[in-house]
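Self-study notes.
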Amino acid sequence: MPGVYISYPFCRQKCTFCNFASEVYSRALEARYVAALRAEIQRHPWRWQPETLYLGGGTPGDIDPAVLETILALVPGYPWGEATVEAAPGSITRKKAHEWRRLGINRISLGVQTFVRAEIARTGRRHTAEIVRDEIELLRDEGITNFNIDLIAGLPGQTPESWSESLDWIERLRPPHVSVYMLEIDDDSRLGREMRRGGSRYGAPDAPSEETTVTLYEMAVERLQAAGIERYEISNFAVPGHESRHNLKYWRIEPYVGFGADSHSFDGEIRRQNAETASEYVTRTERSESPCIAESPAKPDEERFYVGLRQTAGIRLHPDDWQRFETTIRRFADQGLVEAKGDTLRLTPRGILFSNEVLQEFIGT
């Protein structure tokens, strides 16, 4: 069954590395956003029961539980098979965890990024490793045992030694799921812009080299594997049976519907995108206009390669795939970036490191 994604692009502070469509908006806009979000969900023609629910952002973990209840009450399917809320360490209380559980939330994604105090300070975050430990214990006490920890490889000041400290904490905390992202350097984040222009703010000069960042990622793969947390997607690792059911829908090209600013939807044929900013989304909704600003037909053949190959299991090749992509597949196989066994195609460990370049080749081929 399809999944539901709800966007909540509000944060207490904008982290230096963040390149998402989130900001520190006014309380007035936040209240209007909740009203617009409720209106969009109410107007949706529910013809199915959602299997998964995911609240991302921003920091939806900061939503007052009473307000969250008014939003979730509009989504059918309770209790959902998997219902995730993204939360910032340092913001979880026992009362909030208890209310999450009551509302059907059974999975939390914690944006830890690093457990090293000096690295945390440079990102703009305010937690400590001990706070993360205490909040995970609290979640477990309240019956929420399924959680994810986000880590970023490539943050300013990061070294193999400090990264090993973060991985030590992962082994102590025993999360069922870990996401490891390599820092994206682009103009959509303050840190990325500073690094691209050779500036000195946000610790930009101390960011590790691309080669070192790759080394950190490979360290994580090895350490997580040894801890029984297996890679099932380029950036995602899980104890078997704890893979993100919602995110697998994206990589398997299954239907989902998005609500809120910059959310996306896919009904199996058409892809749609909502207005990118919270203010534009609110304005369009208050005018009784559709929040959707773009839609396009899906391209299942290309998309199956582009998102499907992100999974460690790879994709199953059809006879038509060979006819269309044979030259590309054989070239990458000769370079040691993909391997084809029987009717299965997957990235090699080396291919994962060059995944952006490999996957891009299947678009428009």
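Second protein, same conventions, sequence then structure:
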Amino acid sequence: MGIFDIFRSKSNNDSVALEDYRKANSLFENGDFQESLRTLSWGFRKDVNFKPLYELAEKCLLKLGGEEEAQLFKNATKRFNSFQPFNNLGLHFYNEGHYDLALPFLKKAVEIDSTKGDTVHDLAIVYARLFNIQEAIKVLEKNRPENDFWDYWFLTKLRILANQTKGVENDINELFAVLNNEPDKESVEIPLQKANEVKETFERLSVVGKPNNHIRDWHFIQYGNIILDFFEDLEEYAGGGRYVASWGSNESIKEIVSKLSFYLKELDKTIEKILYLNDRNSKILGLIIGKELNVEAIEYNSQIEVKNSIIVGANSIDFDGMDELQKIKQGQILFALNHLWLDSAQISPDICGFMSQSYYFPWDGGGFRIGDMEAEDKKIEKILPDTRDESVIADEISKLDFQTPIQDENLSFYLKHKDYLKGIGSKTNDNRYNFMIESPIAGSYFG
């Protein structure tokens, strides 16, 4: 062993990722390549400079048939002090939505070369989507290139989310000044939309004043939307009121629909028809809402425009690809029972039942029902899918009893800020904005 091997060995033994590497190597030798990779991912987060992680990751991926991904790690091993291989790794995991794994590679790429504006911007996005708004601000303030509209726009948005309002109004005016001076108006159509988005967000933050550290306040500030149900605990919020995994029941759906009816009435919103998307979950929900509001429920068709209606989707991402719903028309309200808070969506619905990482509809089955908890022989029964016709299930749920409380603190919040609610208020434009997962409200979730 040469003197340089001795120093290299010492450096490896000092790494905080050494334990993860040894565990991953043991899993690899036992043929569990997928679990070995998962363990290596923890090592990369702890010490992105620990080269043996890359070598083992390459071997795991080759065993799993991931030649292209293996090549990314091989390139990084061969060019360990070069910008491009780490930028490529970071972009790969960024595009896959694995932000916690994209972070160490993009961070290392920026450390090697901070003049690459696109990578700096991507690193800031990754921090924001991991709910670390302050770190995202630091990245852009330290490294952003001069006169880049999107960096300036994103930094303005992040400052609003951090409630750092000093100078924000001037920043927004600067954004509009740049765009209004652009002679090619078609080229700035999307930037103008995004500038209006941060302008509206800032206006809603201003009317709220001092928002609570809770998703109700911040979802309203970011999107002007309503959430009907939260996970709330007097000691601690899980995900700021958002759910992680949620198993639905007929009773909980009845409660959400009853709240929806109550809120619409109190907000003076008249609904004449329900339009449900053409999947089974959306149809069942649409039929239940129709019964609750005593209006007709029919399948949604983009070719017809029904005034004062609710367009119903089971999940927020079910509206993806429906470009016609980007604009609020004819007094229509967009409703999703579940708003997936770890998935970006093309449209943020005007009202959602709740926010969760994953949700299981009661008629899909798959869960378990436990009998009498006090009985010595507790019976655990697997819940089977309910294959009955959608109208039968909807009719059964609609007949359940639920009394909406007269005093509702959350309703009071929305009534107070009614003018700024999308699809309802008068002080808002007709654009529905993309739902992006960056938020000042962090939370627990399954990785």
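Instructor comment on the second fold: Confidence is low (pLDDT under 50) at residues 1-10.
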